From TrEMBL:
The keyword Hydrolase applies. Gene3D superfamilies: 3.40.50.11220, CobE/GbiG C-terminal domain (3.30.420.180). GO terms for molecular function: hydrolase activity. The lineage of its organism: Bacteria, Bacillati, Bacillota, Clostridia, Peptostreptococcales. It comes from Filifactor villosus. Pfam families: CbiG_C, CbiG_N. Keywords: Hydrolase. Residues 250-369 form the CobE/GbiG C-terminal domain. InterPro entries: CbiG_hydrolase, CbiG_N, CobE/GbiG_C, CobE/GbiG_C_sf, GbiG_N_sf. It comes from the Bacteria. SUPFAM superfamilies: CbiG N-terminal domain-like, CobE/GbiG C-terminal domain-like. This is Cobalt-precorrin 5A hydrolase. The keyword Hydrolase applies. Residues 51-131 form the Cobalamin synthesis G N-terminal domain.
Length: 371
């Protein structure tokens, strides 16, 4: 369940906030002047703007019981992007309206407003175009499939615009997965607009149509050709292809100290290309803790927009016997105290399912685990 805070600033707002908290299992934040003897309420003496800044980075959902104008002016300096900002809903003190103000799709503010409407009988105010026009919201689809990245927001903007502009959009599911098919149907995508190979999708579309390609692959085979799946929108036979790549792999990394960032990235891409794995499918990088300041890995993590996790040698040693066939290096053990950095760290970060064992590259090693 998402962590939710409800903020009010007046006596009547306080009453409303407490009532809402019982429906949302949320924490209530009030100014100290409204303090009464009761549990489950946090009081603050700092200026309102300062407490909102703190809550903005600490909670996934924020419900403000006050005027919209106050909220807009207060949160404006703290906005980053829709992949990081919390869902913000504003409700009036009389509980007449729940207004989805920020992060409606990806953050979930639209659904939070509707949840409040179901619970307390208010009117949900949702203004996102796909919701108003009852069309598929492709950023929500990507988020539910664990593929959303703010870096790819232009893709979802273009798809949502095409959707509300009545342009035909078909889906190609280039993975073995039933859950996505079921979710697409729930999002209003008819079965005759879903295909399971790109060749079929191309055969059943016209040049003005759009194809959403759900994949984890770096290449697809189409009509005897091997075509690279680009990072952004690209074309095949005049059709616009929008790649939506699921983040489903953990990459274990070992490398020599001081390796150049350009070399590490080159070897990383070569490693994935040999496996037909798209770079955007990497959800996390992992290595031993003595590499936590290794610039080349930090640069790669930043370029991919993913977290970089590190583990102690004790944590790594504790799981080595779970991989009896793992390649062990006495040289690595003498250097860092474990037998295999990349595979062990991939195992830890991914949860145990190794897809590709340790692969030695130029001054680096990589391993891949399914999350």
């Amino acid at each position: 369940m998402k962590k939710t805070a409800i903020i009010a600033i007046t006596p009547r707002g306080r009453t409303t906030a407490l009532r809402l908290s019982r429906h949302l299992d949320a924490q209530v934040w009030l100014p100290l002047k409204l303090k009464k003897e009761e549990g489950g309420v946090f009081y603050y003496e700092t200026p309102f703007r300062d407490i909102v800044e703190k809550l903005f980075s600490s909670y996934e959902n924020l419900v403000f019981v006050m005027a919209v104008g106050i909220v807009v002016r207060t949160i404006a300096p703290f906005l980053k992007d829709k992949s990081k900002d919390p869902a913000v809903v504003v409700m009036d003190e009389g509980m007449n309206y729940a207004i989805s103000l920020l992060s409606g799709h990806v953050g979930g503010a639209n659904e939070l407003a509707r949840e409040l409407a179901r619970d307390v009988g208010c009117i949900p105010v949702v203004t996102t175009a796909t919701d108003v026009n009852e069309k598929t919201a492709w950023d929500i689809v990507a988020k539910e499939w664990k593929a959303y990245s703010y870096r790819d927001n232009d893709i979802y903007k273009a798809l949502n615009l095409a959707e509300i502009s009545a342009q035909r959009i078909v889906s190609c599911i280039d993975v073995e997965e039933d859950i996505l098919f079921d979710f697409l149907k729930k999002q209003g995508v008819e079965e005759d607009r879903v295909f399971f190979c790109l060749e079929d999708a191309l055969s059943h579309t016209k040049k003005e149509d759009n194809i959403v390609l759900f994949t984890v692959s770096s290449h697809v085979d189409v009509r005897g050709r091997r075509i690279r799946v680009e990072e952004k929108e690209f074309e095949i036979e005049g059709r616009r292809i929008f790649p939506v790549v699921k983040k489903c792999y953990a990459l274990g990394v070992g490398c020599r100290k001081g390796i150049e960032a350009q070399l590490l990235k080159k070897e990383f891409l070569k490693f994935l290309d040999a496996l037909n794995v798209h770079p955007h499918s990497i959800a996390v990088l992992a290595s031993i803790d003595i590499k936590k300041e290794e610039e080349a890995i930090l640069v790669l993590a930043e370029e991919l927009g993913v977290d970089f996790l590190t583990y102690t040698k004790e944590e790594i040693r504790s799981i080595e016997d779970r991989m009896p066939d793992m390649e062990k290096s006495e040289f690595v053990f003498r250097q860092v105290g474990v037998y295999n950095v990349s595979q062990s760290c991939a195992y830890l970060a991914g949860g145990g399912e190794i897809v590709k064992e340790k692969t030695s590259c130029d001054r680096s090693t990589f391993s891949l685990a399914k999350i």
